[in-house]
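pinned: reference chain
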Amino acid sequence: MQVKFGAEYIFPTGYQIRAGYAYIETPVPDHTLEPGNPDSDQNNFALGVGVTKGKWQIDAFYDIELYEDRSVSNGFQEGEYTNMSHYLGFSVGYIF
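pinned: its structure tokens
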């Protein structure tokens, strides 16, 4: 199951602010969990800003993914997984 939503507000000056949230259940069952694929349910939070000036578009975002702690004992391994990811992005575009 996945639940995602977001919002954007565009100011009359051409600036935009954005925010989003996603809850994503892991598709990886305990019996196939391994160190190379330590997935778990996650909560993602994102913030973004942008500006449009003429035909130019500039955007930036920050996203944090908070993974729920996960314990496993599947005959192959035993252990606990804890994970968190941060992402930053920036783009410049030109509208033809």
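why pinned: The chain has one domain: 2-94. The mean pLDDT is 92.
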